[in-house]
Design goal:
The structure is a single chain. The protein is an alpha/beta fold. It has helices at residues 13-27, 65-69, 108-124, 152-164, 182-195, 220-227, 245-249, 257-264, 268-301, 304-307, 310-352, 354-359, 403-408, and strands spanning 30-42, 45-51, 58-64, 80-90, 95-105, 143-147, 170-174, 201-206, 233-237, 252-253, 364-366, 382-387, 390-395. The strands form 3 sheets. Strands 1-2-3-5-4 form a 5-stranded mixed β-barrel. The chain has a 5-stranded parallel β-sheet with strand order 7-6-8-9-10, with helices on both faces. It starts with 12 loop residues before the first helix and ends with a helix.
């Protein structure tokens, strides 16, 4: 309802502000498509500046942080969004803003949101876990390449592989790398190479492009086919910022096709240089070891015991000779003492021996049976006389008893 005003009867500003607020309040919540020009996130609330996609029109907006976080795709400056908001008018300063209740990605943002949901579902199944990643061969015997015919990606991979390792065998399979049939063609090419026993690594390569161009490489069927491969798969799709789902399921993600070529084969020149360096270091290490051992051997040989090996033997021999001489002298001394003792005992024995008595002129009279005769009355007819150097056999002719014997009796 229009206000009835004139120059003579103007309406107060507060009335106009109130009328504008009431009109905007009757407008209700609306869906608005715009671009996020600015975003200022604060604790509990977020302030945005929305800009029209074509005209130079901007409007402020605010929402709770939970509304921003609930969006299917990350909301950043420059993102295209569709918001469900209620226009609000703040009377004290006459500002108009949108109270945002829901935010949805639009255009490419919606596509990214779909890819994010697909990524989360596949990740929940464990298809992207590192434990499923297969190691690439150090030097592949056969390299499979899936790429577009006569594409820059094919040229980059082939040229770099030949520059790094000219003898590496290549198995190229051409497939559509863009469009609705691309995912199916890539799946067929990958399956063919995976079944080839001469291929031990597969590279899927494509140049850069928009999100829509790279969409086939986030196809769920392609992701599952690559996950099921027994041959290691290298993803070389787009440029460094591009991250299709194939990058996550592949055993190795290369930033570019050129980077893939560098990752799958070693550089022959670098390897030869490394081998030469290892040989040189090994030779130097052996020489140092030999020098150290030669110095150690020379030091050992310079020691007195080895410089004149007989030194220890001579010293021990001298000790043995000394000990032998001492033993000989001790033995001779002991024998001399023993000889003296034997001489003394012999002299004593000889002094007590009857033979010594006989040698002084005495004789022993014996009967033929060897009985010593002590009385003339016991003298047999045949008498044996024992002298110092033998015995004499004689016959008894007469007996002359000693008169003294009769006196003693």
């Amino acid at each position: 309802m229009a206000l009835d005003t004139s120059a003579d009867s103007p309406a107060p500003l507060r009335t106009i502000s109130q009328a504008v607020g009431e009109y905007i309040g009757r407008l209700g919540a609306v869906w608005v498509e715009a671009e996020v020009a600015q975003l200022n996130r604060r604790p509990g609330i977020c302030f945005l500046t929305l800009r029209d996609l074509e005209a130079k029109v901007s409007m402020g907006a605010k929402c709770h942080v939970s509304v921003l976080d609930a969006c299917a795709a990350p909301v950043t400056a420059g993102a295209r969004v569709v918001v469900h908001a209620k226009p609000t008018y703040y009377g004290p300063n006459g500002s108009l803003s949108l109270d945002v209740r829901e935010i949805r990605p639009a255009g490419e943002g919606e596509l990214l949101a779909q890819l994010e949901r697909r990524k989360q579902l596949l990740a929940a199944e464990g298809l992207f876990e590192p434990r499923w990643k297969k190691a690439l061969p150090v030097l592949p015997l056969g390299i499979g390449l899936v790429t577009g015919r006569a594409s820059a990606a094919e040229r980059d991979v082939l040229e770099n592989v030949r520059l790094r390792w000219a003898a590496a065998p290549m198995h190229v399979r051409h497939a559509l790398m863009q469009g609705p049939e691309s995912a199916r063609a890539v799946i067929a090419a990958v399956a063919e190479l995976d079944a080839d026993p001469t291929v031990d690594v597969i590279v899927v390569a494509r140049g850069g492009g928009s999100v829509e161009d790279l969409l086939p490489f986030s196809d769920e069927a392609l992701v599952r086919a690559v996950f099921a491969c027994t041959t290691p798969v290298v993803s070389a799709i787009g440029h460094e910022p591009d991250t299709p789902l194939l990058d996550l399921v592949a055993d190795l993600r290369a930033s570019t096709p050129t980077d893939a070529a560098k990752r799958i084969v070693p550089d022959a020149a670098v390897e030869l240089e490394a081998i030469a360096s290892v040989r040189q270091r090994s030779r130097q290490a052996v020489h140092r070891l030999l020098d150290r051992e030669l110095h150690g051997l020379a030091a050992i040989r310079s020691r007195p015991a080895l410089a004149r090996p007989t030194t220890l033997v001579d010293a021990q021999a001298e000790l043995v000779l000394t000990a032998r001489d001492r033993t000989r002298r001790a033995l001779e001394l002991r024998l001399d003492r023993a000889r003296d003792e034997v001489g003394h005992h012999l002299a004593r024995v000889r002094g007590l021996s009857p033979l010594a008595t006989l040698q002084r002129g005495y004789a022993v009279a014996q009967a033929p049976d060897g009985t010593v005769l002590t009385s003339v009355h016991d003298t047999p007819d045949e008498i044996h006389v024992r002298l110092a150097d033998g015995h004499v056999v004689t016959q008894r002719t007469s007996i002359h008893p000693d008169p003294q014997e009769h006196v003693d009796e």
